[in-house]
Amino acid sequence: YEEDIFYSVKIGFITLFSRDKPKKAVQQKTTVTPENDEKLKNTTAQAVSDKAEVISEKAGQTEQNKVEIPQEEEIKKPKRNIFERLRQKYDAVKRKISVILESIRSIAVKKDAAIKFLNEEGTVEGAKFLMGQSFKLLKNILPKKIEGRLRFGTGDVYTEGQYLSCLCLIYPLIGEKLIIIPEWEEEIIEGDIRLSGRISIFTLLIILLKAVFSNSTKQLKRNLERCRKSL
């Protein structure tokens, strides 16, 4: 509703609640007498005079504002602000370019250090020697013969698949000798596995001593230390 709604609720002569129209203010009638008439004239004349003074002051201020000419410093101030913003943007771009160039230099330094490490005398020989010793160690530890069956289940299809994925890596070596039976719904692990082989403590000790005190290993270690310092 565009206009207000006025209402009242009554029981008999008792008003429970209401919203009446606002009453208009009653203007008091003033009896015009010679004295009142003279006061009214004086008041009106004073109000007109005050209003004329205010208008005159505003007109004077307007004229003054029109006549005032901006100083040279005030004219140059916006230009200074523009140059300042341009300089700040230039500094920000310069910093970003500096960071990018520093990253490129860092990558170049790392690349040069890696290439120098690979071309160092003794790096490739030391890596080959350690890999050979590692294969010998595994050959000595791993069983020579594996037979039996393994039945397992995790009760969860997802984890069961993960375990089978890991077993697939060695299954070509033991597939005919070890039978793997997965259980997809039951949580169980059981098996009958027979392993045969031998582990020589003396052989393990010889392999470890060669790996630690070999000249190839020492040279590889020195090359790694120089590469780390150059980075």
Structural class: alpha+beta
Give, in order, the helices and strands.
EEHHHEHEEHH
Mean pLDDT: 76
Rg from Cα: 50 Å
Shape: elongated
Count of DSSP strands: 5
Strand order of the largest sheet: 4-3-5
Q: End-to-end span in angstroms?
A: 79 Å
Described by strand count, sense and barrel closure, the largest sheet is:
3 strands, mixed
Beta-strand content: 15-25%
With helices defined by DSSP (H or I, 4 residues minimum), what is the helix count? Answer: 6
In helices, the fraction of residues equals 55-70%
Q: Which stretches are poorly predicted, pLDDT < 50 over at least 5 residues?
A: none
How would you describe this structure to a colleague?
The protein is an alpha+beta fold. The protein contains 6 helices and 5 strands; from the N terminus they run ββαααβαββαα. Helix 2 (72-119) packs antiparallel against helix 6 (215-230), helix 3 packs antiparallel against helix 5 and helix 3 crosses helix 6 (215-230). The longest helix is centred in the middle third of the chain and has 48 residues, at 72-119. The protein starts with 6 loop residues before the first strand and ends with a helix.
